[in-house]
Specification:
The protein is mainly α. The protein has one domain. Helices cover 65% and strands 7% of the residues. It has 5 helices and 2 strands, in the order E-E-H-H-H-H-H. A two-stranded antiparallel sheet has the order 1-2. A hairpin with a 2-residue loop joins strand 1 and strand 2. It is rod-shaped and about 95 Å long.
């Protein structure tokens, strides 16, 4: 397993799924020029690998087009699709967690703000000490 880190996040993936060095560094133009695969590429690679094995010596191919290489490429393409789906679900989960954490923090600050407002009427230095809090709720 390989670890990919960014900021405070660490992702563990199988070694063969580690993005190539250029991933994340491509320009918009370079991304545009990449051939876009149709859905089912893994199945097409698997079927092609079987076909190569069936015809045997009738078809001479370079090593990068061997049945093993095709199967590996197709499996990697399909597996990284699953990684992306999993990450999208995790992203949704963390976005909802953010909303929950923000709501909790806001509820606590609102409660404190109400107490500060009451106390500030009697003790002006309380208003000054909590100026950031009071400004937050005046927006």
């Amino acid at each position: 397993m390989a670890e990919i880190k960014h900021g405070v996040v660490t992702l563990s993936v199988d070694d063969h799924l580690v993005p190539p060095p250029e991933a994340g560094n491509l320009t918009v133009e370079e991304v545009r020029r990449l051939p876009k695969a149709r859905p089912g590429i893994g199945l097409a690679c698997q079927a092609s690998a079987q076909a190569i094995e069936q015809v045997g010596a009738a078809l001479t191919l370079p090593p990068e087009l061997s049945p093993e290489a095709l199967r590996s490429a197709g499996e990697r393409a399909e597996e990284v699709d699953q990684v992306i789906r999993d990450l999208e679900l995790l992203l949704q989960r963390f976005r909802q967690a953010n909303l929950i954490f923000d709501a909790d923090a806001l509820a606590r600050l609102s409660q404190l703000n109400e107490l500060v407002k009451l106390k500030a009427r009697q003790t002006p230095e309380v208003e000054t000490a909590f100026s950031v809090l009071r400004s937050f709720f005046k927006r």
